Amino acid sequence: MCPPTYYSIAYEINPWMSLKRPANHARAVAQWNRLYQVLTNELGARVELLPPHRGVPDLVFTANAGLVQGRMLIRSNFRYLQRQQEEPIIERYFRRKKFRIATLSNRFDFEGEGDALWLNHTLILGFRFRSDEPVHEELARKLKAEVLPVELADKRFYHLDTCFCPLDARTVMWYPKAFDRYGRKVIEGLAEDRINVSEQDAKRFVCNAIVINDAVVLQSGCSAGLKRQLTRRGFRLFPVDLSEFLKAGGSAKCLVLRLI
């Protein structure tokens, strides 16, 4: 995670961002601290902190830094100039932590765990708005794993992790309308148990959740129906208000990069 010291809405690179709707910094810090407390104190997660840097407000969304496998970081190639400034910061940090840095062809964009999520032993790659489809072949070679690209179809859900959340080996939570027809078929073929979320819940970024065993940390305010579906399957819910980060098009998952 990266403390939100310099977090702000400084530009507009997704449909959620508006310079006319700035983040309340004090509230954002309080919300981020609450998420950190839930992860560390209530769920016992070990959290490493990436030092914040002035001038890169979206560094707080560490899920986009890259994709970690063991001691290797596949560093992101950000699509937008504003976020490309994060790349050397991320690379220096992981080198200091003794990770091996892998990079992808600079012909293609790739925004890390934001667009790449594991379901069992298969990596699902979301592409179109921030990552490019051809990058899945390079990822497959580096990871020595099956990588299946799925096309995103709704620019409001510009990263895979805004509309798709693997919950366990057979269960996913997702907003199907965020995918094109082929993408839906791919996921339907992989996930035995699929929880479809409503558009209202999807717009709250409930799919942008952190899953630790049976615990699901997600944006507060999800519908009663979704709560029932999750708890009936044995998941424990840890809602956190992250509304100040929703203004930038992110929520719980965007604020965390999984290191194991």
Helix and strand pattern: HEEHHEEEHEEEHEHEEHEH
User: Rg from C-alpha positions?
Assistant: 17 Å
Model regions low in confidence, pLDDT < 50 over at least 5 residues:
none
The count of strands amounts to 12
Helix content: 25-40%
Taking the alpha carbons of the first and last residues, their distance comes to 14 Å
Shape: globular
**Kindly state the mean pLDDT as a whole number?**
98
Q: What strand order characterises the main sheet?
A: 1-2-3
Number of helices: 8
SS strand fraction: 15-25%
Taking the sheet with the most strands, its summary is: 3 strands, mixed
Structural class: alpha/beta
Topology:
Blueprint: H1 25-42, E1 66-69, E2 72-75, H2 81-84, H3 86-96, E3 100-102, E4 116-119, E5 122-127, H4 135-143, E6 146-151, E7 164-166, E8 171-174, H5 181-190, E9 193-196, H6 199-203, E10 210-212, E11 215-219, H7 224-232, E12 236-240, H8 243-246
Parallel strand pairs: 2-3, 5-6, 8-9, 11-12
Antiparallel strand pairs: 1-2, 4-5, 7-8, 10-11
Any key phrases for this structure?
260 residues, alpha/beta, 3-stranded mixed β-sheet, 8 helices, 20% strand
Structure report:
With 260 residues, the chain is an alpha/beta fold. The chain is 27% helix and 20% strand. The protein contains eight helices and twelve strands. It has helices at residues 25-42, 81-84, 86-96, 135-143, 181-190, 199-203, 224-232, 243-246, and strands at 66-69, 72-75, 100-102, 116-119, 122-127, 146-151, 164-166, 171-174, 193-196, 210-212, 215-219, 236-240. The longest helix is centred in the first third of the chain and has 18 residues, at 25-42.
